Amino acid sequence: MKLLKSSYLPKGFIASGLHCGLKKSGNPDLALFCSEIPARAACLFTLNKIQAAPITVSRKHLKASGSHQAIIVNSGNANCFTGSRGVSDALGTAGAVADCLGIKSKSVLVSSTGIIGRPLQVDKIKKAIPKLARSLSVKGIKQAKRAILTTDTSTKAFSAKIKISGRAVTICGVAKGSGMISPDMATMLGFIFTDADISKGILAKALKEAVDQSFNCITVDGCMSTNDMVIMLANGLAGNPLINSDKKALSFKKGLSLVCLELAKMIVKDGEGASKFIQIKVSGAKTQGEAKRAGLAVANSNLVKTAIYAANPNFGRIIAACGASGAALDEKKLKVKVSPLKRKGVVIEINLNQGNSSSIIYTSDLTPKYIKINAEYS
Amino acid sequence: MKLLKSSYLPKGFIASGLHCGLKKSGNPDLALFCSEIPARAACLFTLNKIQAAPITVSRKHLKASGSHQAIIVNSGNANCFTGSRGVSDALGTAGAVADCLGIKSKSVLVSSTGIIGRPLQVDKIKKAIPKLARSLSVKGIKQAKRAILTTDTSTKAFSAKIKISGRAVTICGVAKGSGMISPDMATMLGFIFTDADISKGILAKALKEAVDQSFNCITVDGCMSTNDMVIMLANGLAGNPLINSDKKALSFKKGLSLVCLELAKMIVKDGEGASKFIQIKVSGAKTQGEAKRAGLAVANSNLVKTAIYAANPNFGRIIAACGASGAALDEKKLKVKVSPLKRKGVVIEINLNQGNSSSIIYTSDLTPKYIKINAEYS
């Protein structure tokens, strides 16, 4: 397997990005990802009970069609809590993309990120779509990955090249993260493309497994978003024999998991105001769910996060968070080990000594900069 | 009912406080509360699975004896995650108090607050107990309420004077709060004294009801402590006819609820780094549990807290937190109203429009000062 800390689009995928006017900064705020031929799609959405209009529309289009070809993404506005107007705006966006590309509206998926509760300036988007469609190219991924960002300070992309039955298969993912990052589910936007020929069922399963161990294991501020989704498109252009069983999917899953995990780590490292990258390795839990629960409780403790920010070895806070998590534990058996706190990467090892399950959670510290960013963001 | 924003000890109660050496600052760190005659006790403890040694010992003494007479409290060290040595230190503390007062060890309750995971310097405590016992007086409450504080910037006391069948009854509570404040349960230390004659069963019920609507409705940082408890002592010296039914307890419950609620609000107002006092009024919930859940989700959202700190009207964050809470809701029916954010007191009204249950949650904002305090605390 060859890994690239970069966006290397698989065969038949093109992308573009530009500034259409949603962001005041002048930075790119509209991205289009496209497969030259219809592709199989797999999607995961936030579990928040408030779900943004683009999620409603993407769900609808996933139901209505067995193949998909384009993803239109805007940043700067979440198009969430915007009522029926929001839904019609998202539908209109998909329709405009479909018209330009000469495809059906239901094969377009829609995604948004940004501020919640404000009407989408959909006219700006519609006006920009023809130019966006004209700019589609392999190199366009460079602008596209910038256009999906909000408070992120860097783009996030990772690619894996694998061999399946002698054929070169590429998996490429781009993501945005930064704040409002917490399970479940997909605590951010992620778009993953592959030229693998893979059945819809196995693709969905592989994506769920990879996301559970990556995007669902990260937290920046414990705040679950209304807009988050991971969309994956597989167009089959690699020409490999169809992957239609778990057994045949082994190396594909390995590659996909790696891409998701690397993107997830990038999101945490670029967490709002983050100065440290923290790995919380929980072992000896009764179940994997409890391992994750304990790890997330520690990761979401403001007291743990501030202690690590300040390299203050106040380990009692880790213990208190474990105890508050509800995971089965026993004070006498609980073991906690923390790596030197002055370093940029911190590892907290927690052995609950109750069973054989484990989990790794990734998080950042809580710094005055997080407050500054979020005090000013609107 | 007469209410006093101060500590006004009921008949037969005395207290004292001094500096025994646990706090480097030289501030008082050891308090003793005492009833001149044996009193009935009611207690509530943290739900954290890690529980401090003083909780273990207090539970033991509550089981072993039907009446209690003294509470010894130290700040500066939580005596938590300190193993069997911690338990023997807490037992030793109770024993030393019992010896000095000429009472049984099992009628002494023990409470600690401070840093977790460090051995208690029990010799300093034992050495100071004779002087502490000699200083017991009605006026001693002034030092006692200072001695239970940690990062608190002010003492917290509230008293209610009520009439029961023509007899004057006093309920007086003192508390400490500040950080690691979150349900359940008692997210702080609270000591409440009354001279009412009240049966143990009704006392326990009244305390549970009052705490559920006060200390269990506040959150500063969503972090559940390992040491928190509310202890109530009732010595019967008011000479009222015994309160042994819910019906007879009506005005007593009213007074107790008020004392608890006022103390709870004081804790939030003095939350670490707090610059605002936020009330989250959730109505229209399917159940009271869901109302509380939604309110706490909003109260614990770092994004909501930073927005309010900055008077930034980013109401989408309130909506996102509601949706993430798991409480039943419908985007189309959800109504959110927020009072002007520039004021020191902020009211967030959320109507879920799903049912008839409601709840009020009290919290503070998240400020750079919270991080400063917790980065440096150890």
- Separation of the first and last Cα atoms of chain A: 42 Å
- Strand share of the residues of chain A? 25-35%
Q: Averaged pLDDT of chain A, please? A: 88
Helix content of chain A: 25-40%
Instruction: List the total number of helices of chain A.
Output: 10
Uncertain residue ranges of chain A: 183-187
Q: Tell me the total number of β-strands of chain A.
A: 14
List the secondary-structure elements of chain A in sequence, H or E: EEEHEHEHHEEEHEEHEHHHEEEH
Greatest contact between two chains? A-B, 61 and 61 residues
Global shape of chain A:
globular
Molecular structure report:
The structure is a homodimer of 378-residue chains. Chain A has 378 residues and is of the alpha/beta class. Helices cover 33% and strands 28% of the residues of chain A. Chain A contains ten helices and 14 strands. Chain A has helices at 53-64, 83-101, 122-134, 141-147, 200-212, 250-269, 288-299, 302-309, 316-325, 368-376, and strands at 2-4, 13-18, 30-45, 68-77, 108-115, 156-164, 167-176, 189-194, 218-219, 229-234, 277-285, 335-338, 345-351, 357-364. In chain A, the strands form two sheets. In chain A, strands 1, 2, 3, 4, 5, 6, 7, 8 and 10 form a nine-stranded mixed sheet that branches. In chain A, strands 9-14-11-13-12 form a five-stranded mixed sheet. In chain A, a hairpin with a 2-residue loop joins β6 and β7 (167-176). Chain A is globular, with a radius of gyration of 21 Å. At the A-B interface, α8, α9 and α10 of A face α8, α9 and α10 of B.
